[in-house]
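ugh ok fine here u go
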Amino acid sequence: MALQAIFARRVFTPQEEIADGVILTDGEKITAVGRPDEVSVPASARRHDRRDFSAVPGFIDVHIHGAAGYDVMDSSAEAFAAICARVAARGTTSLLATTVTASEGATCRAVESVAAWMERAKAQPPGGSGPSAEILGVHFEGPFISHARRGVHPEEWIQAPSIPLFRRLLASAKGSARILTLAPELPGAAELIPEALRAGLVVSLGHTDASYAEAIAAISQGARHAAHVFNAMRPFAHRETGVLGAILTSPGVTAELIADGVHVDDAAIRILLAAKGTQGVILVSDGISATGMPDGRYRLGTFEVNVAGGVARNSDGKLAGSTLTLDSALRHMVALGISLREALPMLTANPARLLGLERRKGNLVPGADADLVLLDDQLNVTGVMTRGVGLD
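structure:
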């Protein structure tokens, strides 16, 4: 791939806003960002004049199950290709393939397939017909979750926290595991958390009925993230604040938020932002196979869900993931009065920092991957580049 120069009306790095900015890329990497009088653009560079739009870092989704009619648990290259292409069109340039509670065999097959996909992607330079999101690893959502707060996760496959089972799942992931969501109150969780941390995973609190004390104990052990906050958690009460009280008052814990106007009321979002600040919140989709598809019946893992009006529910009427895309989540946050500059880190720099990838992802800085999104004044996606591919 040749040198490319993208000229934009505004460039959000996202920490800095550069008016009349230019981003210079060489192959998969960004080499310079600044004003045209600060960046030397070689005559050989391909120029993209996008001065009607704002350029922002590519979005990072750390909790997504599927899109385009496919599910991560399909365990196929066809599924991953379709998911990555569909979400890239809406600005998501990186993601964690997220499992749903299933049998050990099904989960191992899924994460083995993710690892194989990632290996092939390393061996092949980006290219093809257009932008495609990069799979950064696996987010294990289950099976070590609470029966009481399981949401739509199949009850028959929920397991007590087990180091031997975790090690088998980890081995199947072949180094691709990044996040483990668990219920910290379960017997065995206190032993499993240090094991996951030693393996380099982020431990996430989720699908949990934990008390405040139980959640704080897990945070003291090193848990530093929380899955889709407010959903599938013990509700907040003023005398026993539960896991939510621990999350809201622990500065080192990042909180996932599904900002689709369905999963979390706007007043609750405002409370979360007041407690955590924008630096402590990460926007996620929790997207399922129905993402980017018309209403109808779809699968989430091994079971069916019905999508009506864009909202996914199981046969009991419980919310079953979402059809949200991160560009829509961004627009929802800005509509609440959050400035674009304040909102952008919640789906760029914050998730990159959670994964320890801030030098490579989520920031428009020299040396980072050439992942960027162009937005119009209504924050609609008008162009996407993934590792130097796209924008045409």
